[in-house]
Write a structure and sequence with these properties.
Blueprint lengths: L4 E2 L1 H8 L4 E7 L3 E5 L1 H7 L3 H5 L11 H15 L6 E9 L5 E13 L2 E10 L1 H22 L3 H14 L5 E8 L4 E9 L1 H8 L15 H8 L3 E3 L12 H7 L3 E9 L2 E10 L8 H34 L4 E6 L4 E4 L1 H7 L3 H4 L4 H4 E3 L5 H7 L6 E7 L5 E12 L3 E9 L4 H10 L11 H15 L5 E9 L2 H8 L1 H18 L5 E4 L5 E8 L2 H15 L3 E3 L2 E3 L3 E8 L6 H18 L4 E3 L2 H22 L3 E10 L5 E12 L2 E3 L1 H8 L4 H19 L6 E4 L2 H4 L2 H9 L2 H4 L2 E6 L1 H5 L1 H13 L3 E7 L16 E4 L1 H6 L4 H16 L3 E4 L5 H10 L3 E2 L8 E2 H11 L1
Parallel strand pairs: 1-5, 23-24, 26-28, 28-29, 29-30, 30-31, 31-32, 32-33
Antiparallel strand pairs: 2-3, 2-6, 4-5, 5-6, 7-8, 7-11, 9-10, 10-11, 12-13, 12-17, 14-15, 15-16, 16-17, 18-20, 18-23, 19-20, 21-22, 25-26, 25-33, 25-34, 26-27
Helix pairs in contact: 5-6, 5-10, 17-18, 20-21
The protein binds ligand C2E and calcium ion (CA) (2 copies).
């Protein structure tokens, strides 16, 4: 080997690079020259290395020390040789390890044989390598695992364990709450605990929504943050992340059918890790995962088809939601005798009928196939009718498809009989289904028409059952349905027929009734039995029901007609409220339609500002001064004024009431902010709105000067339905500065003693008492007691509907403080009300 001689200047020239670390050592591995790049690599100051405090062996990891020692000795003894190490581990000042490519030579420096070493930091390359490997693994997972969940789970694991990201989490965004929900997570337990305590949102309006996840969700792209501490969007989590010790974050959106299905987040303690070359790798990772998800989606589709064929279904038709056929396999064309082209131009309901001539579209819409098989008739090209067993399912990929897998069973009568029998029952309760129920009605009618007996079709449905399903899940929901079925069975006669129709609807055929009253008595008793609590898996549920009834032969003489009419009566009962029973009447059809129409017209009417606020002032009985006014709503429709009595109860059956009362609050605030009104306005608030969190939050959020001027009028019924909840809400509102008035006091269930514990300020004595009190001494005594009791409890009393001087006198004597009624003023439109206020001032 040639002897190389270096002087300081040449060395400097060679080592003047930021990429290579260069150093020269002499006896005992003492450094005599180091460049900046090497200092950076090992984390020491140049002086520390050159002073002799730190020697080369201090920087070499134990396992290489022996070998390094002998090389050092040989070089300083003057042996000339070169040596390359592809991977050597150096130790930095803070005891981190660095992987280094090492080229060593013996040179003459300062006239002495010395070691001359060029180093290349390959720590990063090494990470790339790991990442490449991880990528390969993920790729491998993608080809070998067929389940999406498994791939995602393994990916999270690989990225944490093999690649070394400190925390890896895959989750999705809950669209309702806009919060990020974790699905799989990997990392040290302490990190996981910290992570789980952070609220992450994608809502840009709140600080928790401005981080990398929020951004990648909204912008549908990979978002990297290379220094959490200097990124504005991460401010919401800075303190948590400090505990955590991470620097870099990367959020990778994963797509399904063009929508973001998941977000994968990588956290690293290394600053600036997501940059340069590394990002290419992250990008490929994202591509691999995305194409895998896509592949699985199509695979699922294929699997469904294969499964259908494996199950013995011969032909498959796929239709879009409007029933237009978009796919038919070869068997389908053969069985049906149409060409593919002909089939693809038809709708599913043109060739497939259910027995009883029910339209397949209706079956799909009502979802009463519930994953079961049905027997359908097929119309073939030659006009023949064939019988086929069908399995219907809905699949949502880029859009919704209906998959009908079928098997021709025209020839197999035994199978037909078996299947048809199995198909007569509801799969959850094992009661008859709609189809079998109509058959049963039909058989009954055949007999009953000669016997002059009544039959009743009773349809009943628990209220808000879908909510229960949502909260406790379908499994528990199904247990409740089963129990309902059991209770009905237990409380009816053996020969009555019980069925379960779609979703949570039940139907009963009461045979051989003598009088209509008996039907009512039985139904009421049934509601009583069904309203008792349901104890399911240690949880207690209270249900209320609605019942609709139609009577044979009065309402109809055919099964479908009877069932339809009972269902119309049910809608009517629903609009009437909990535990109510509706009988079918001819008027009902139009009445029910009218009610449905009113609710349908609501959104448009609200937009057109057809709802107008009227104001009825109330007065101090002692001084005659205006004490405040009640806000009463009117619907001005095509110039005619509709009374709230006609629409409020109907809106109360839907969420429309909340929307309307929201609007009323907005209007009241608007009025207060544009006029100088110093008397409070009482707003009638329905129970539905009061129980609505967003609604009460809105009230709580109003400015204090408005809270001071708004009274909340509620009816006492509220406390009977949800006493605890109602009390706590009203407490909160009173603490916020509102006053609470009890409306229509005395009408329902009032027990005078219970009001002492309620968070209220004022009692409004119902109009009916004020009316009757002049004729009926008992009523007068009641009113007197109410006023007296209210006084004792420090509550104000307002008498409603005061129309005469005599009434007013009587109320005055009793000590009632405030009166409202036509004697003083009718409800007034805004302008008139404002004028009146001015006059009184
Ligand atoms: P309410 O809260 O008991 O309102 C008093 C009703 O009695 C008003 O009828 C008012 O016009 C009427 N009234 C007042 N003084 C007299 C009188 O001296 N004689 C007679 N015969 N009637 C009098 P209105 O405006 O038709 O409201 C009827 C009901 O509609 C209200 O009864 C209330 O329950 C409901 N309502 C009105 N506006 C709203 C609202 O914004 N939200 C809710 N939830 N309900 C409302
Ligand atoms: Ca009222
Ligand atoms: Ca009232």
């Amino acid at each position: 080997m040639k002897r190389i001689e270096f002087d300081e200047a040449t060395l400097k020239a060679i080592s003047n690079t930021t990429i290579f670390g260069v150093y020269v050592y002499q006896k005992d591995g003492r450094f005599v020259f180091v460049n900046d790049a090497f200092c950076r690599l090992v984390g020491y100051q140049k002086e520390e290395l050159l002073s002799g405090q730190v020697k080369l062996l201090d920087l070499i990891k134990d396992e290489y020390k022996e070998r390094a020692k002998s090389i050092i000795e040989r070089r300083v003894a003057g042996e000339f040789f070169s040596r390359e190490f592809s991977e050597i581990t150096y130790l930095t000042k803070d005891r981190q390890t660095k992987l280094v490519l090492n080229f060593g030579y013996t040179v003459i420096y300062d006239s002495k044989p010395s070691g001359f070493v060029i180093t290349v930091d390959i720590t990063k390359q090494k990470t790339y390598e790991i990442l490449y490997k991880a990528l390969a693994k993920v790729n491998e997972l993608s080809t070998n695992i067929t389940q999406e969940d498994e791939i995602l789970k393994q990916t999270v694991r690989v990225l944490n364990e093999d690649v070394g990201f400190d925390l890896v989490c895959l989750g999705y965004v809950d669209e309702k709450t806009e919060l990020f929900k974790e699905k799989y997570i990997a990392g040290k337990q302490t990190y996981i605990d910290i992570f789980r305590n952070i609220k992450i949102s994608v809502n840009p309006d709140i600080p928790e929504g401005r981080g990398s996840i929020g951004r990648s969700y909204r912008e549908k792209r990979i978002v990297t943050i290379n220094n959490i501490y200097s990124d504005k969007g991460m401010s919401a989590w800075r303190s948590v992340q400090k505990r955590f010790g991470v620097y870099s974050v990367c959020s990778i959106p994963l797509f399904k059918n063009g929508d973001i299905a998941y977000i994968l987040i990588l956290y690293s303690k290394i600053p600036n890790i997501f940059s340069g070359e590394f990002m290419h790798l992250i990008n490929s990772l994202s591509k691999t995962l995305n194409s895998t998800l896509e592949k699985l989606e199509t695979q699922k589709w294929k699997t469904i088809l294969e499964e259908a064929v494996n199950l013995g279904f011969e032909f498959i038709l796929i239709a879009e939601e409007d029933l237009k056929i978009v796919y038919a396999n070869d068997n389908a064309t053969q069985t049906l005798g149409y060409t593919k082209h002909q089939l693809l131009n038809k709708r599913l309901n043109e060739i497939v009928y259910q027995e009883n001539d029910r339209d397949i579209g209706e079956v799909i819409e009502k979802q009463d196939y519930s994953g079961n098989c049905l027997v359908f008739k097929l119309k073939t090209d030659e006009g023949n009718i064939k019988k086929a067993l069908f399995h219907l399912s809905k699949v949502k990929t880029d859009r919704t498809y209906i998959i009908a897998a079928g098997k021709d069973i025209t020839e197999n009568t035994e199978l037909q009989r078996l299947i048809e029998n199995a198909l007569r029952r509801d799969s959850i309760t094992n009661l008859l289904n709609r189809y079998a129920f109509t058959e049963a009605i039909e058989r009954y009618i055949e007999r009953a028409q000669y016997q002059d007996r009544l039959g009743a079709v009773v349809v009943l449905k628990p209220i808000n059952f879908s909510l229960i399903n949502e909260v406790v899940g379908f499994q528990k929901g199904n247990l409740i349905l089963k129990e309902i079925g059991e209770r009905i069975k237990k409380h009816l006669r053996r020969y009555d027929i019980i069925a379960k129709l779609e979703s949570s609807k039940f139907a009963i055929l009461l045979k051989d009734m003598k009088r209509e009253e008996d039907i009512l008595v039985i139904s009421m008793d049934l509601i009583r039995q069904l309203s008792k609590p349901y104890d399911i898996d240690g949880q207690r549920f209270n249900l209320s029901f609605n019942v609709g009834i139609s009577i044979y032969p009065i309402d109809s003489k055919d099964p479908i007609g009877l069932l339809d009419k009972a269902e119309i009566a049910l809608i009517d009962a629903r609009l009437k409220g909990e535990n109510s029973i509706g009988f079918y009447k001819e008027e009902l059809k139009s009445e029910t339609e009218r009610k449905l129409k009113i609710n349908q017209e609501f959104p448009e009417a609200l937009k057109n500002k057809e709802f107008v606020l009227y104001f009825q002032p109330y007065f101090s009985i002692a001084t005659g001064a205006i004490e405040g006014a009640e806000v009463l709503i009117r619907w001005i429709k095509n110039g005619t004024v509709i009374s709230p009595l006609e629409f409020i109860p109907i809106f109360e059956q839907t969420r429309n009431i909340v929307k309307l009362e929201n609007y009323i609050i907005d209007e009241v605030v608007e009025l207060l902010s544009t006029n100088s009104i110093d008397k409070p306005l009482s707003v009638n608030i329905s129970a539905t709105s009061l129980m609505d969190e967003a609604f009460t939050e809105k009230l709580i959020g109003l400015q204090p000067q408005y809270k001071k001027l708004i009274n909340i009028e509620i009816t006492e019924r509220l406390f009977l339905d949800k006493p605890g909840r109602a009390s706590s809400i009203l407490h909160k509102l009173r603490n916020e500065g509102y006053r609470v008035y009890i409306d229509d006091f005395g009408t329902g269930y009032s027990s005078l003693s219970y009001i002492s514990n309620l968070p209220i300020d004022c009692i409004k004595i119902d109009i009916s008492f004020v009316r009757q009190m002049m004729e009926n001494p008992k009523t007068k005594a009641i009113v007197k007691t109410i006023v007296y009791l209210a006084q004792q409890l420090n509550l104000t009393t307002i008498a409603e509907g005061v129309e005469s001087k005599e009434q007013l006198e009587t109320l005055k004597e009793m000590g009632c403080q405030i009166a409202q009624g036509f004697l003083f003023s009718k409800p007034l439109p805004k302008e008139e009300f404002l004028n009146l206020l001015e006059k009184y001032q």
